[in-house]
Write a structure and sequence with these properties.
Helix content is 34%, strand content 31%. The protein contains five helices and eight strands.
Length: 163
Amino acid sequence: MPTRGVVYVHSTPLAVCPHVEWAIARVLASPVRLDWTVQPVEPSARRAEMTWSGPPGTGADLAVALKQWPMLRFEVTEEPSPGVDGERFMFVPGRSLFRASTSANGDIQVSEDRLRAVLAAARGFEQLAHALDRVLGAAWDAELEPYRHASDGVPVTLLTRVG
């Protein structure tokens, strides 16, 4: 059963735009042409977003394909599907790829075992708060937030993964 999601390329150098399209096209096995616009937060950069549909796991494939350009800022979401959690991936320069499971409404879900490990390792409130921020991707969110707001009113491309 197919699922769907969104790729948000928040910023990329103009010269990398065709490479981003090719990487997405490879994953979706379909030609891709994104509607690139200026990123107001970083006027020398471009931004685009697209919705996609495909089998579960396509979101992870898209994130892996895009992270090969360390200068990109992007997010990939995948909606939950029968028997499969949703996922959210975030990437910003200088950080590793962040991945989290998501609920039907897009909230990050943290497993019971992960919460127990965070609680066991924390030595006081500040360490606990810092560990929970890490688990929830707060640093990625903080860096991406100005770029997200710049997307209001931007056109979205719809693509379907073949196969």
